[in-house]
Amino acid sequence: MAYHTLRQEYMLMPPVTRAYTTVCLLTSIAVQLDVVSPFQLYFNPLLITQKFEIWRLLTPFFFFGTFSFNFLFNMIFTYRYCRMLEEGSFRGRTADFVYMFIFGCITTVICAWFVNLLFLGHSLTTMFVYIWARRNPYVRMNFFGLLPFRAPYLPWVLVAFSVLLGNSVLVDILGIAIGHLYFFLEDVFPNQPGGRRLLATPRLLYLHILTYFVLNVVTSFDLRHF
């Protein structure tokens, strides 16, 4: 009974959030069990360009560390704000959400090429938080029940929390900068005089997403009837 409830809750997650968080969790499990090493996953421009280890363009976004408080904290934030974006301002716009993911990953990789960052998932999560916060400016929040504030201040509260923990704030600042760039190009600039939408989702991506959902519907129908 518990298994069916858990499976049902899992399948109720929006598809992009479900796919990303699942890959992140499986990556950490694989590292925890010594199936793969973090040294095979981290971002290294030299190994990418000289050894053609192209997978390092993606794997740094999937690893949040082995099981620990830091891992749990990051995964909760990733799941929460990724899901709230997908079910909120991106509801019914899966292709646009995937395109936001692509924009965030490409921009983060370009920036990481010039700074010393090994794993990039935290910056992507901070980008999610920033975009959600700017699109929900009147939501009231509190941090561990102690500090009340409005949503737009959340990314900066997380920066302060990183400072208190003694962590580097570079990944947080990078995520905020990329989130602000996306928010400006998608939400601000198109509404300015003479502005236009510069991040219009390619039609090909809409076609791929539509094909994916059609295949899912057909597969579900077949499974129920055979």
From TrEMBL:
- Main localisation, per the record? endoplasmic reticulum
Where in the cell?
A: Endoplasmic reticulum membrane
Supply the Pfam families for this chain.
Answer: DER1
Q: Which keywords accompany this UniProt record?
A: Endoplasmic reticulum, Membrane, Transmembrane, Transmembrane helix
Example GO biological process = ERAD pathway
Q: What does it do?
A: May be involved in the degradation of misfolded endoplasmic reticulum (ER) luminal proteins.
> What protein name does the entry list?
Derlin
What organism does the record attribute this protein to?
Daphnia sinensis
From which lineage does this chain's organism come?
A: Eukaryota, Metazoa, Ecdysozoa, Arthropoda, Crustacea
